[in-house]
Amino acid sequence: MYVLVIEDIKKKRIILTRKTFIIAVKFLTKEEIRKQIRKDLRNQKEEDRLRKSLVIQERLFALPEFNDSKTILFYVSFDGEVETSGMIRQAKELGKRIALPNILKKDRKIIPILVESFNDLEVGPYGIRQPAFDPNFRLDPGDLDLCVVPGMAFDRTLHRLGRGAGYYDRFLTTLSEKTRTVGLAFHFQVLDCLPTEEHDVPLSHLISD
Hints:
By secondary structure, the protein is an alpha/beta fold. 27% of the residues lie in helices and 26% in strands. Strands 5-4-3-8-11-13 form a 6-stranded mixed sheet. A 3-stranded mixed sheet has the order 10-9-12, covered by helices on one side.
């Protein structure tokens, strides 16, 4: 049986099945949701993560917006997220221009950087691999046709819940109207509703297994 354990503000342990967790989401804080999804991501078997990621990759590559895009911002998967390395390599083989985020922690900003190879990546803030900052390979957000967005959780209205630092929340507001955005998620990351605020920007698409 799928079981989740949360702690309320009085430190009492509450055991939830997957079904009751979905019902209880509307009463949970963002951090409580992050805690549960992070646990699920880390507990998932690696063979299952890779198998499901391939399903998601096939669905992404079948998306008309993907096929019509010339320049795509991917993310480097981290801490149990949907695996993106194979997607990036195959997209490059299809002739797509690939950018990856360079995180400027001091400014709390994401800078899209064109990349040629995974061998060029370095370990950046939060332990996430990223391209080195190079002004010659920097792209403006308006240069992107498609932005593949990570998240801890997503909902049916295409809102996302990130890890809490707000990098993508700010970055998404800088994109051109022509830029499509797509979230990648395992089924347990997709909830009926998430806590949202007025400034939250919904995605264009969400792809799950």
